[in-house]
Amino acid sequence: MGASRSLQRSSPMRLLIALIGLLLFLWWMIQPPSTSSSSSALNINLPDISSATPTAALHPPKKAPPILHITMNNLSATAHPLRNQERLLILTPLARFYDEYWQNLLKLDYPRHLIELGFIVPKTHGGNTAIAGLQEALRRVQNGSKKHRFSKVTILRQDFDTPIGQTERERHALKAQKDRRAAMARARNSLLFTTLDPGIAWVLWLDSDIVESPPSLFQDLAMHNKPVIVPNCFQRYRENGAWKERPYDFNSWQDSETAQNLGRTMKEDDILLEGYAELPTYRALMAYQRDEKGDKHTEMLLDGVGGTALLVKAEIHRDGAMFPTFPFYHLIETEGFAKMVRRLGHQPYGLPNYLVYHYNE
């Protein structure tokens, strides 16, 4: 009876089953855990860092990106930009898209492979319309022959609201100027800081309502080789069936003792503005210095500048000259920019006899 139980306990079938069970157990023990179970455990135990760490930092590229070496001392902005193949950045705050502006831009005769464009569009219904018109115009050019394409185009959408309406009357009301000009300065700075790369030699600020200028606008301004220079901005209009023209931009001026004394009596956050009877500054406005028979390259020193067609050597912006969004010596936006340029040791200039024309609403 005892021998029979011993034979049952050690039968070949039971030994085989036990061996297979042992091998399965050992196989299970030595297998690595599955990816899904591992990830689940890590996600439970580790803090969520996705909001604090850029995705690129968590997933390094398989191939290291190139390292650029740029010698800024070799960058030139001279009186002969075409000869030296100097790159131009044209920047436009775009509240409305005028086809006349675009056609005028296309007529500029500087080689397009040396031109980059930058636009910033407000978060408004009008901005939606403007960006649609701009994109369609760009599509036709950038999908055309390589010779006619611009080197680079950047379109920004503002991340802040426009404080006032966009009709001409609303834009030019005195009570709206501080908020309006501050928002314009903010938009200009956003556009500038985003698009100014190390290879740019010149920056041309060209408003979206400049609809007529000489095709050689950039070269004509650059030939003066000034750190900051601005032409005179006029406007064509019809009166009694005849075309006439009148000064439009009053932000380019030479300062006056009257204006300086007025500034001394103002509160710290007040701003001085031109073209308003409530603020008689008696400055010498470039708009009224035009000599119809005079040389179009006649220069005048300026203390304030407008931004309708403003050429700046890129090194001036890199020095720190930006558009104040706050009262800077009682000046703001482009006029504050001119003041900042002078505080940095540079001199703005104007060309009273050289005209560009503003859209007539």
Automatic annotation (TrEMBL):
<comment type="similarity">
    <text>Belongs to the ANP1/MMN9/VAN1 family.</text>
</comment>
<dbReference type="Pfam" id="PF03452">
    <property type="entry name" value="Anp1"/>
</dbReference>
<dbReference type="InterPro" id="IPR052086">
    <property type="entry name" value="Mannan_Polymerase_Subunit"/>
</dbReference>
<dbReference type="InterPro" id="IPR029044">
    <property type="entry name" value="Nucleotide-diphossugar_trans"/>
</dbReference>
<protein>
    <submittedName>
        <fullName>Mannan polymerase complex subunit mnn9</fullName>
    </submittedName>
</protein>
<dbReference type="GO" id="GO:0006487">
    <property type="term" value="P:protein N-linked glycosylation"/>
</dbReference>
<keyword id="KW-0732">Signal</keyword>
<keyword id="KW-0333">Golgi apparatus</keyword>
<dbReference type="GO" id="GO:0000032">
    <property type="term" value="P:cell wall mannoprotein biosynthetic process"/>
</dbReference>
<keyword id="KW-0472">Membrane</keyword>
<keyword id="KW-1133">Transmembrane helix</keyword>
<feature type="signal peptide">
    <location>
        <begin position="1"/>
        <end position="37"/>
    </location>
</feature>
<keyword id="KW-0812">Transmembrane</keyword>
<dbReference type="GO" id="GO:0000136">
    <property type="term" value="C:mannan polymerase complex"/>
</dbReference>
<dbReference type="GO" id="GO:0000009">
    <property type="term" value="F:alpha-1,6-mannosyltransferase activity"/>
</dbReference>
<keyword id="KW-0735">Signal-anchor</keyword>
